[in-house]
Every structure is written in structure tokens, then in C-alpha cells.
Design brief:
The protein contains 10 helices and 14 strands. The protein is α/β, with parallel strands linked by helices. The chain has 2 domains: 211 residues, Rossmann fold; 77 residues, Alpha-Beta Plaits (2-Layer Sandwich). It comes from Williamsia maris. Keywords: ATP-binding, Nucleotide-binding, Transport.
């Protein structure tokens, strides 16, 4: 089993601007960790510190119990938000160069290149210049560059940006396969539906600080529940003032109630029935998108 990636109390300032403040979280071996936040929240800064591109003012990055050094960073597969492949260099040639730069032999590098371009649907484009590929295929080539040296850690900054649904499925499968091999996978994304579906745990960052983290189910459960009721006459505002009702939203024949743990669903149902027939009575936890908006706006 691989070691966990540990982000330990990172802080970073640029003059009066606080880019990171006491950033702390762990990506366990075999775990996919989604790192979400608004533009400028500090996601890319954190990742660049992990890679040694930036230095932190304080805090540490560890792999297991060891601070990451230059040699250990060669084990990391990194996909930057600003794609970094040479546009006038052939796909296969560039990937072989990067694999050898990370310490693979020429033979292993060649075998890995063929395997990954085939796996990612680029087999027929291996001798094309990167700049001649579509943006989606350039994205696949960038992912191949992060994988070709068989990394023990993956750090991917917006890896799904600009991909078509087929490519999203391919990349999702690859990340799940690497996690199943024990690789800690950290990726950022604004596609919260995808994050909710794919990730074991999620961290929500705003203004350089980690504001919420946990499994998707834990975060959704912590966001309270919504009771959806269809049928009762909404003009009566029938749920106003009932115990456990935090907020009531009446829309046509539908009532949406934000409720807490003190709400008595049987009492709510009985009250609803006094205002008309009930065709739907169901609870749901908030979507990750709703939690994100709530955390970021707090």
C-alpha cells in the first residue's frame, strides 16, 4: 500500500494577500479526494507547493511520515491547470522523454507510452504534434504525461476541463483504477456532479482556508434535509411555524421545507393532509453544489 499524501498546516502570503491559511488535509492511499473551491480560493497554490513549484511560508507536505523532497516528487504524477506539453513535439516522443526524465529506462518508457496512449484513445495520434490535436485530445495527452512514469501519487488540477462525456468516462475510470492500486489521488474540479459521483472524500476551500471536508455522504448529511411535499394548498403556507421547519419554499403545488433533526415527519404529514391531498412526501439531502454555495457564501 502506498503512503498517504499529507498537507500539514500550509500557509502562504503575497504581501497583504493571504493565499493559504493553515491548509491541512490528508489524501489516504487508495482514496480519490476532490478539492473544490472558487477561482482564486487556493487550490492551485496548494498543488504547486506539493510539487515544489512554490514554497510555503510555513507548514509541510509529507508522504507518509517523510517530508517530500526532490526525489520523492519524481513519484508524483502532476497535471497542471495550465497545460504544459510542447505543442511542436510529437506525442509519443514527448511522453517517452518525460518518462525517462522521471527515471524509467528507455524500454520501460516506450512500453508505458504505448500502453497509456492506447488506454486513453490516442494510439492513432502518437506520431502527431501535440499542437495538432484537438483540445480534448491534448487533455488526454496531458493525463498520459502524468501517468506514464507509474506515479505513486496523483495530483491533478482541473483534469476534466474541456473534455467530452466519453473522455470524462475514460478519465474517471483511470482515476478509479489508480486508486484501486493504492495511489492517493488529489484532483480539483468545478464539475461538482462529477466530484460527488467520483470522490471518496471532498474538501471545500474558500479564501485560502479549508472550510469543510469529509465524505460526500457526511457533508450532505451535515447540511440538513429537505422535505418535498406535493399536493397541499400552498397559498395557506401550511408549514409556517411548525417545529423543526427552518425554511419553507412554496412553488405552485410543491412545498420544499428545510428541516432539522427535531422535525416530526408524521406531524408534518398530518398537517399537510389538512390542506389537501398529498401526492408526494419525500426527504433528500442537499446536493454538493448546494453545500458548496452555502460554504462559499458563509
Amino acid at each position: 500500500m502506498n503512503d498517504p499524501l499529507i498537507i500539514d498546516h500550509l500557509s502562504k502570503r503575497y504581501g497583504n494577500l493571504t493565499a493559504l491559511s493553515d491548509m491541512t488535509f490528508t489524501v489516504n492511499a487508495g482514496e480519490i479526494f476532490g478539492f473544490v473551491g472558487s477561482n482564486g480560493a487556493g487550490k492551485s497554490t496548494t498543488m504547486r507547493i506539493v510539487l515544489g513549484v512554490l514554497s510555503a511560508d510555513s507548514g509541510r507536505v509529507l508522504l507518509g511520515d517523510r517530508p517530500i523532497d526532490l526525489e520523492m516528487r519524481r513519484q508524483i504524477g502532476y497535471m497542471p491547470e495550465e497545460r504544459g506539453l510542447y505543442p511542436k513535439m510529437k506525442v509519443g516522443e514527448q511522453l517517452r522523454f518525460l518518462a525517462e526524465l522521471h527515471g524509467l529506462s528507455s524500454a520501460d518508457a516506450r512500453d508505458n507510452v504505448v500502453r497509456w496512449v492506447t488506454r486513453l484513445g490516442l494510439g492513432e495520434r502518437i506520431d502527431d504534434n501535440v499542437g495538432d490535436l484537438s483540445l480534448g485530445n491534448q487533455q488526454r495527452a496531458q493525463l498520459a504525461a502524468a501517468l506514464v512514469h507509474e506515479p505513486t501519487v496523483l495530483v491533478l488540477d482541473e483534469p476534466f476541463s474541456g473534455l467530452d462525456p466519453v473522455a470524462v468516462d475514460v478519465m474517471s475510470d483511470v482515476l478509479k483504477e489508480k486508486a484501486a492500486e493504492g495511489v492517493p489521488v488529489l484532483f480539483s474540479s468545478h464539475q461538482l456532479d462529477l466530484v460527488q459521483r467520483l470522490c471518496d472524500r471532498v474538501g471545500i476551500i474558500t479564501k485560502g482556508s479549508m472550510r469543510a471536508q469529509g465524505s460526500v455522504d457526511e457533508l450532505r448529511a451535515g447540511g440538513g434535509k429537505t422535505l418535498h411535499v406535493t399536493g397541499p394548498d400552498t397559498s395557506t403556507r401550511w408549514a409556517d411555524g411548525l417545529p423543526g421547519v427552518i425554511e419553507a419554499d412554496y412553488r405552485g403545488a410543491d412545498t420544499h421545507l428545510r428541516i432539522d433533526d427535531t422535525a416530526d415527519d408524521q406531524r408534518l404529514l398530518a398537517t399537510a393532509l389538512t390542506h389537501g391531498p398529498v401526492h408526494r412526501f419525500a426527504t433528500s439531502h442537499p446536493h454538493l453544489t448546494d453545500l458548496f454555495r452555502e460554504v462559499v457564501s458563509a
